[in-house]
Amino acid sequence: MVVFAGCGKEKSDEEKLKEQVEEAFKDAGLQLDSSAQTDEKPTVESTLMEVNNFVIGDIWNDGLVNISHFAYSGTDSTGNTMDIDFTIQQLGKAMEKKAEYDTYIQGLDSKYDEVKQLWAKVTGEIDTLYKQLQDNPPTAKDEAYEFDTGLYKQYSDAFSKAVGELNQ
What is the pTM of this model? Predict the structure, then answer.
């Protein structure tokens, strides 16, 4: 009796798993190889979605909501210890990226007038809040400190909705 181990066309468990993962990504409409996407130029809609994600993530989640909460409670919005100076510094870096988005959105054609008008409100309110932080940063548990993010939230929600409608 002769046994030919490893010489057949039987796939290893690793190869089978790799194929299953690739098939799952394919079924979900995703690509594993990002190099295949480098030739594609982003659309205005996809760039606006990127801007929207920036406003939600970098400006709101990582910045304004935590700063607002810090002034009231001395912690971030999830109750964790927070370095307010570091948070404001990181928000400053986000402001540089926001300036790039300002230029991009101002250059859009009239098809995007609603988004441009909403962005003007959002970016203006971000500038107002950031200036307040530079001029008068909060201290922990300062009940007299006013950091009103209501207008920002109203404008950014409307911007998010408009961008979402463009991407439907």
Answer: 0.75
